[in-house]
Amino acid sequence: MSADPTQVLAFETDCHIFENNGCGFPAPGLHSFLFEPLWGDGDSNLYFNKTMLLALLGSVIVVAFFWAAFRKPKVVPGKLQMVAEAGYDFIRRGVVYETIGKKEGEKYVPLVVSLFFFVWMMNLWSIIPVAQFPVTAIISYPAVLAGIVYVVWVSLTFKRHGFVGAFKNISGYDKSLGPVLPLAMFIELLSNLIVRPFTHAVRLFANMFAGHTLLLLFTIATWYLLNGLGIVYSGVSFIMVIVMTAFELFIQALQAYVFVLLTCTFIQGALAEHH
Amino acid sequence: MSHLLILAAEEKENPLIPPIPELVIGLLAFVIVFGFLAWKLLPNINKVLEQRREAIEGGIEKAEAAQTEAQSVLEQYKAQLAEARHEAARLRQEATEQGATLIAEMRAEGQRQREEIVAAGHTQIEADRKAAAQALRQDVGHLATDLAGKLVGESLEDHARQSRVIDRFLSELEEKAEAAR
After folding, report:
1. What is the pTM assigned to this prediction?
2. Which 212-271 residues of chain A touch chain B by CB within 8 A?
3. Across the interface, do A33 and B20 touch by the CB < 8 Å criterion?
4. A121: number of Cβ within 10 Å
5. Do A140 and A33 form a contact (C-beta atoms < 8 A)?
6. Nearest-CA distance from B12 to chain A in Å?
7. Measured between alpha carbons, how far is residue B119 from residues B108, B113, B122, B123 in Å?
8. Chain B contacts of A139, Cβ < 8 Å?
9. Which residue of B has its CA nearest to A139?
10. Does B8 touch chain A if contact means CB atoms closer than 8 Å?
11. Hey, are the CB atoms on B42 and A110 less than 8 Å from each other?
């Protein structure tokens, strides 16, 4: 075994405890996040695997949901429109208006709403039967989203404040700091321009990565222990699978929320007057 | 194979280094979602939300208009009622005045009639008195003549002389009475 992908669609194992066929507990690891391509060559950059399938499928689902709800919206809404409106209103009022403000924020509502539902859908794949893999546990997806947000708020800062103003804004220029100013500016620049997008992406990635690992651990353990006396422990493990699934359901929504909340905070910071 | 070996081998694959194809597909997937939402679906719902807000506010405005109208109608009614009360009071006043006038007129008429009757009575009494005085004068004349005839003799029986004497006598009496008054 190696770090090479051993799975195409799912982690498969036939090992059980108390069997003397030489296989131990097939612990989940980094290899659980690697997939053999469904199409193409894994060594080149031309391939198509499960996470890509889920990403595209997920975006189609999000679009289909909002298409069904908002294509011909009515003043007196139907059930589906009401649900979609509730979600839309939650992000618009609860996140964008709250952080950026109604006047300035209106422009960024489509971006933030798209981000939230996209991320949430990608997270949700983690507990949708058959798929059962959070797309955001692959760093590329959060990185792309964090990159888009980065481009948006940095360009916005320069557009709003001009070059010097933007530099002051990002570096937290403050004369009252005195001799510490260069150090403070250096740290602020590093923090805002390099660490910020990194943590923005990794926060989401790591949460989903860890969540999926935990789910895998208990799921594999349930299966592995299902033999002889181990069946009791298998039961306990299965209960943990259910508990962790419920917990993940919560974390998925929470992380999507945190992601867009940070997005709004960055945009708000870019719009704010330097002080 | 031991797990340590697996872990060691896995270190080659750093999960924090994003594979390029996934980046591209991720961008594409997000652009699909953002494109549809920003291009059509969110503007759609915004329009409807705005319409709904207007409908609700329109309803409130309508209710306010109805309330204003009701208020104005009420004031109109109140004004009319006050006017009617005023009119009634005026009519009552007028009636009272008219009644008073009538009573006064009737009283004046009664007074006039009474005075007429009294005057008529006076005239009647005067006439009666005059007639009675005339008759009495004649009777007294006769009686006095008779008496004087009896005392003086039949010479006084001559009617003409007799009348003259009596009249003269009575005139003297009247003059005396006038003088005494």
Report:
1. 0.72
2. none
3. no
4. 25
5. no
6. 8
7. 16, 10, 5, 6
8. 15-18
9. B18
10. no
11. yes
**Cβ–Cβ gap A140/B15 under 8 Å:** no
Q: One-letter amino acid identity for A194?
A: I
Instruction: Provide the strand spans (E) within chain B.
Output: none
CA-angle at A163, arms to A157 and A165, nearest 5°? 65
A-B Cβ pairs (cutoff 8 Å, strict): 136
Amino acid at A15: C
Along the 275 residues of chain A, how does pLDDT read in single tens digits? 345 666 877 777 778 887 777 778 888 888 888 888 888 887 788 889 999 999 999 999 999 999 999 998 888 888 999 999 999 999 999 999 999 999 999 999 999 999 999 999 999 999 999 899 999 999 999 999 999 999 999 999 999 999 999 998 898 888 888 889 999 999 999 999 999 999 999 999 999 999 999 999 999 999 888 888 888 999 999 999 999 999 999 999 999 999 999 999 999 999 987 65
User: What is the least distance, in Å, from the CA of A229 to any CA of chain B?
Assistant: 25
B13 residue type, one letter: E
